[in-house]
Amino acid sequence: MISGWKGKYSDILKEFKYSEKKDNESAVILNLILKKSNVNEKIVKLVKGKIVLVIGSGPSLSTAIPKLKNLEKSIKIAADSSIKALLENNIIPDIIITDLDGDKSTLKKIGKTKSIFVVHAHGDNPEKMNLVKYFKNCIGTTQSKPFSKIQNFGGFTDGDRGVFLANHFEAKKIILFGMDFGNRIGKYSNTKKTERQIKLMKLNKGKFLLEWLSTNTKSELFTTSKPIIGFKKISYKDLDNIIT
Predict the structure, then answer these.
(1) Which of 101, 102, 156, 170 lies at a 20 to 30 A Cα distance from 122?
(2) How far apart are CA 32 and CA 173, in angstroms?
C-alpha cells in the first residue's frame, strides 16, 4: 500500500459511514473467484515508464473523445462509467477500473477483449462479483488490508483509483481526461437524482486524494479537465508537447 493510505481509509469509513467488515467480506468473495494470473506483469509492461491517459466520465468527456480517438497508441486507463461512450467511438481502454456499477452488457462485451479489468471490492457490491467470470484478464483490489490475490493501490472512486494504479506501476506521466471533480455530474456517470449528493461527496473526496497523491508521486501529473492542485493544467493543443 502507498504510505499513509491506512489513515485516508479510516477517514473514508468515518465520513461515508462505511463498514470495514463488509469491505473485507466482499474482498474475500472476490479473492475466491479470481484465478492466479500474470496480469500484474502485463500492467507493468503497459504502464511502467510510459505516458498514461486516465479517463473519467465527467462533463468534459464529450469534448475529450475526439482527441482521445487521435491518441490510439497511448495507454488508456478508464473508469467503467466512461467505457460505454468510449466503445461507441471505437476506443478500447487498455485497463478498466470498476466496482461493477457500470453497464453490465458493456462490461461483458469488453471483457472478451484483451483489456485488463481491475475489479474493486467494497461493502456494497459482493452480489455483483459473478461478473468477474466474464473478464479474461482481471485482478482484484480493496480499500482495506490487501491479502492473497487482493491488492491495494489506493484511491476511492473508479477515476482516482486509476490514477493511483498508474502511480503504483510507475507511469512516467499521467494525464487526466473527463475528470472534472466539480459540481456537475457527467451524463455518462448514470447517476440517479437521489444519489446526486453522495456522488458529489465522493467526487470531492476523490479530488482530495489526488491532491494528496501529487505530494507522494514521482510521476509527472497533468489534467485536461478542471484544475487540480498538484496537476499541471494543459489544453488539448498542448498535448502534442506532452505526449512525446
Answers:
(1) 170
(2) 34
Containing structural domain, residue 204: 5-242
Number of structural domains the chain divides into = 1
pLDDT tens across 130-180, in order? Answer: 999 999 899 999 999 999 999 999 999 999 999 999 999 999 999 999 998
Handedness of CA 59, 60, 61, 66 (dihedral sign): positive
- Residues 79/83/84/88 CA torsion (nearest 10 deg): 150
Q: What is the CA radius of gyration of the chain?
A: 16
Q: Which pTM was predicted?
A: 0.93
* Segment 61-86, tens digit of pLDDT: 999 999 999 898 899 999 998 998 99
Residue 218: pLDDT above 60? yes
Tell me, what CATH number does 53's domain have?
Answer: 3.90.1480
Task: Compute how many other C-beta atoms are within 10 angstroms of the C-beta atom of residue 121.
Answer: 29
